[in-house]
Automatic annotation (TrEMBL):
Localization: Cytoplasm
Crosslink (Glycyl lysine isopeptide (Gly-Lys) (interchain with K-? in acceptor proteins)) position: G107
Modified residues (1-thioglycine): G107
Designated name of the protein: Ubiquitin-related modifier 1
UniProt-listed GO biological process terms: protein urmylation; tRNA thio-modification; tRNA wobble uridine modification
Family of this protein: Belongs to the URM1 family.
Length: 107
């Protein structure tokens, strides 16, 4: 496998999170197959990748807390709660559909 191999995935944001991502709700991404240390790409790596390469808003703390998705954000992997898939340890697969939904609403 080459060093520049990627995994095609679809990412969606809703519940207001899309504001942090240039008001774009859906992204078709080519995620590197390996993280910074050469390990297979996981949701934890995806979150870092989104913050470093996709998120234009400087308020990263609205999306991540302590290097993981902050409480109040529901993560669905292929329409299943990420808790059923191993949370941020889940290894991203080709054609995965990963959705981030904010359940917190300001008033």
């Amino acid at each position: 496998m080459s060093d520049n191999a990627t995994i095609p995935i679809t990412i969606e944001f809703s519940g207001g999170l899309e504001i942090l991502f240039a008001n774009q709700k859906k992204y078709d991404l080519s995620l590197p197959t390996r993280d910074e240390s050469g390990e297979p790409a996981t949701v934890a790596f995806l979150v870092r990748y989104l913050c470093d390469h996709i998120m234009k808003d400087p308020r990263k703390e609205l999306f991540v807390l302590d290097d993981t998705v902050r409480p109040g954000i529901l993560v669905l992997i292929n329409e299943a709660d990420w808790e059923l898939e191993g949370e941020d340890k889940y290894q991203v697969q080709k054609s995965d559909h990963i959705m981030f939904v904010s359940t917190l609403h300001g008033g």
